[in-house]
Specification:
The chain is α+β, with helices and mostly antiparallel strands. Helix content is about 25%, strand content about 30%. The termini are far apart. It comes from Runella defluvii.
């Protein structure tokens, strides 16, 4: 009987946790992003007109500024707002050349070599309503943890 009560208690707590997580991902993308920021006690450094939230996590005042057209190498982790990682690694691309999703380009352009930042943005700067395969559903706001390794 005690085991049954424990099981019922566990299921009740589990249902509460799941419902709380669903609440955070309900509403508009803007509400989902704001809920994520609030629930994770993040301090937004800048919010752009496009909806990108730029959160500087490690500054490098002496780092080189990055210019459009440069080859930029970054370490990154891409996540959904559920904190599920969909991709991670090191990647090089030409900034501003349209080789990456818009939010990635826009956010990294704000950084200097050696800096780290978290970028959170709506699907309009990511994969839109189409999503990206099984890992990124359509209309998903995205979060990227970024470190700029180099720019040439």
């Amino acid at each position: 009987m005690k085991a049954l009560f424990r099981l019922v208690g566990f299921l009740a707590v589990f249902a509460l946790v799941v419902s709380c997580n669903r609440e955070d991902l309900s509403g508009t993308e803007e509400q989902q992003i704001e809920n994520y920021i609030k629930n994770n006690n993040l301090v937004v450094t800048e919010k752009t007109a496009t909806g990108l939230r730029y959160i500087l996590t490690k500054a490098n005042a002496t780092g080189a500024s990055i210019k459009s057209g440069q080859s930029v190498t970054v370490k990154y982790t891409g996540k959904l707002l559920t904190d599920r990682t969909f991709d991670a690694g090191t990647f090089s691309f030409y900034l501003g050349a349209g080789q990456v999703i818009e939010g990635f380009d826009e956010g990294i352009a704000k950084m200097k070599v050696g800096e780290k930042a978290t970028l959170i943005f709506p699907s309009s700067l990511g994969y839109g309503s189409r999503g990206a395969g099984a890992d990124i559903p359509g209309n998903s706001p995205l979060l990227f943890e970024i470190e700029v390794v180099s720019a040439k």
